[in-house]
Design a protein that fits this description.
With 307 residues, the chain is mainly alpha-helical. The chain has helices at 2-8, 24-51, 58-87, 94-127, 132-135, 138-150, 153-164, 181-187, 193-225, 231-260, 268-292, 295-305, and strands at 11-14, 91-93, 173-174. It has twelve helices and three strands. Strands 2-1-3 form a three-stranded mixed beta sheet. The chain is globular.
Length: 307
Amino acid sequence: MAEGNISLIMEFMLLGFSDLPNLQGFLFGFFLIIYTGILIGNGLIFVITKVEPVLQTPMYFFLRNFSFLETCYTSVILPRILVNLWTQKVNISFTACAAQFCAFFVMAITENFLLTVMAYDRYVAICKPLNYPLIMNHRVCVCLVAGSWVSGIPFHISLTYLIFSLPFCGSKELDHIFCDIRPLLKLACGDTSVNEFSFYVIILIVGVLPFLLIMCSYVKIITTILKVPGTKGRSKTFSTCSSHLIVVLLYLGCGIITYLRPSSSHSVGLDKVFSIIYTTVTPIFNPIIYSLRNKDVVFALKKLLCK
């Protein structure tokens, strides 16, 4: 009987914001504006860093790839949220849930590694300026971006297998905004301790390790900046690096808190809030942080818009 019930579960109910029936229209408009802003903002950064000759440097090459990744990353989550809010249908098939789960972690893990690469680029540029053109040549930059995508493959395949190889029974309700690890583990039957342990190990490798590497890079960067003579050069350098650091703290900080908090301290509402921050709020702020705090990008943007 139990086996029969398990085999019958072919879809989940992705509840999202169904507990806020009076705010469905407002939430649809809010997320539509957010998604449109993400597409336009990151699209503009992608275009201007591609066509503007002044921005053909390793830093903007990584920023262009980061903007493309952010667009893909949010496109895994936000269209499903918008459809659910518009149609009021919360059903998602087992296959679609697995596909969303896998695609999300492909983008998330790649973003972690790409942020680490961007921190390394700033470290070389500031701490080893004379060797920067030699170390960060175009071939190396392409390899680092490709490595950010490829090196995460074993991890997101492992995560997808760890979760969707489990038998699901009982309730089909996923009280979250997308198919994520914690809500899915709650619906799994039997002992999931091995899966949870493996999940923690993977998160430590793909989340905490990049965060620590980035922090180490910025400790060395800040130490070097403080030795720069003159406040003008120091403030300009620090402004460029602080933009990247803000993104790291918002994105990786919220992600680490969400996934490494003990199960006993988890709150559904808090998990949704953190998820919204690192899946929608951070991507909408990235173009603002990188453009308004960067004179070269602002100049290139004005030049593009005036054509």
